[in-house]
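Quick entry between incubations.
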Amino acid sequence: MRRRIASKRTLPALLAAAALVAGAAACSAPGDPAATAGGGAAGTQAGTKAPLVIGISLSLTGDFGDTGKAAEKGYELWASQVNKSGGILGRQVQLKIVDDTTSATQVVTNYESLINEDHVDLVFGPVSSLLTVPAARVAARYGYAFIEPAGGAPTVFALHLHNLFLAQPAPVLDLGVSFADYILSLPASERPRTAAYSSVDNPFASPVVEVVRQKLQAAGIKTVLDQTYPAEQADLGPVVARVVAAKPDLVVDGTQGEDGYETIRDFVQQKFSPKILFMPNDASDPVNFPAQVGMGNVDGVFTADDWSPLASRPGNADFIKAYLAAYGGTASQIDPTSAEAYACGQLLQEVAQKTGKVDNATIISTLHAGTFDTIEGSLSWNADGATNGTSGLLLQWINHELVPVYPSADAAHAPEIAKPAWGE
Amino acid sequence: MHTFLQALILGILTGGVYALMSTGQTLVFGVMRVVNVAQGMLVILAAYLSYTVHQDLGIDPFLTLLIVMPVMFAVGVGIQLAFIRPVKRNRAEAGFEQTLLIMFALAVGIEGILDLVYTSEYRSITTSYANSSWTVGGYTLSVVRVLAFALAVVLLAALWLVLNKTGFGRAVRATVQNPTAARLLGVDTERIGALGMGLGVSLAGASGAVFGLIYAFNANSSYDLVSRLLSIIVLGGLGSVVGAVVGSLSLGVAEAVVATVSPVWAPFTFLVVLMVVLLVRPQGIFGAVERGAL
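Done. Structure below.
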């Protein structure tokens, strides 16, 4: 799960992109015969086997383009699998995916068009909280269930929408809970005595670090540094130097984007290797993190995510097998966003199996009433759509591989508390 | 005290990299009265070029400058000939707004192409010495940053020599000081403008290769650079190469030193310095009220 939000630097691009693509988007939405293939409204008529049309707006271009394409793979994989097995309640699933160009304006236009002009039967969510917030409002206005893969920020649940369901095991805020729980599970003699908390001022980073700090500090681990730096900080050298000067046993580093890579580089250059290092965001990228910081510098680093190819979850192995057959590559290269999107489909499938219906009202009431097994874990929700009582996976780089280490039910390897020195 | 001095060293080294970027930008403004808001994007374009040459040909990033700088020089000349000159010919000095928009459009266009070609994943130029550092008197000196600073010093010295010891440099300075008089004296100001643009963009090329060595980047990384570079050249004085260097070092040192006390205030500090300077001296530290600051 790469948590993405538009920063100041992206806004000019978003505005420009929105203006440039407005016409293009209009071409593919209203009045386009291809766009309405399958006739969503017809699909809801009793007794017919018309396709079940699901409308989705994804960021196939723009800042979140890579994440959007990963979600597209997950959605399409699920649809192709379910169609091979006869569809949902005998209806073939047809996805209508439109590009929002990572624009919060375009995503609203897209869902309005999907619902009012294409009359899709159902909708699934876009990627990123930035786009989920406006999109979920549209879906709520028309009474559509809104199962969404990647909107886990507090702003999403602050909408208090009864129709929204996050297909991840934990909202963003709880991403570090597994790490804190693991540290507190250690015998007192093995626990770190001091900790430094450093984070960029970003809704996907600093709140996560703060939750960890509160838990560890309450348990007696002394805070020797607690700093938040602005996203505009050009050079992290001085910020990292403060961490180094504090000489903590444990470093919790809430970086986002390129900051995580620079932080590791600065640690290496300043010859400081903390005993325990937790980087909830950047270190969870199985491809780019080692590529950017060097494979010799990854081992021992803890991180967190909502999905791992090695997590012991029902259906995970089948998902990976199907994914690799469809798209190639290796399991470690699968973007968790694909798994999140796939899980959205699994939830819909389970509702249909339980109730024999796939109308929006049934989906909303059913999801609020039970617990559902997906490759993202067993999910249930509170009234606002945040997942209940679970936390994300704690992952660790061990022998150059990113493996789930906590909670033990999902673990593929025992955590290794002592981080090796850089370059080993 | 140790932390303060460490930050001071870091700030100076970082300022050197910014000096490379901003001198190119201020040169373009001085010669052509074009606020090159695409300079940040050109830096990133050069970073991608250097990255590609390094990846595909295995050439050391510093040696990629031998390819990247000429290519970027050609890009700069091309921009001048294809986009700026027609506007300037039509409206002369009145083309300021148009050239601003042209450069912005170019930046957006280049960003889109880079996103398509390289995707939005972060890249960085990784070498065997990327994470190496020297310890001198207890202070850590990043090898890459020291080399980048040395490169900046060499290139800026070369720029000074070109501007002050060659006929081309005299023509550039004449164009900066009084383009009409320069034309009357036989200086082909359009040609000088094209070469000046090429020179400014080739400096962006040099700094791009260095930028990619120090920082991870994607096409969006240019937006942070744009505001910084504009702030630097406004502080130093629009069109002043010396001002750009002083502004860059001020930015690097101010942010690094203040960050050791409180990272929250680091970016703001430079803006405070900028505001104070502009209140006292609106033309910037080395800027002239009229043309001719170079």
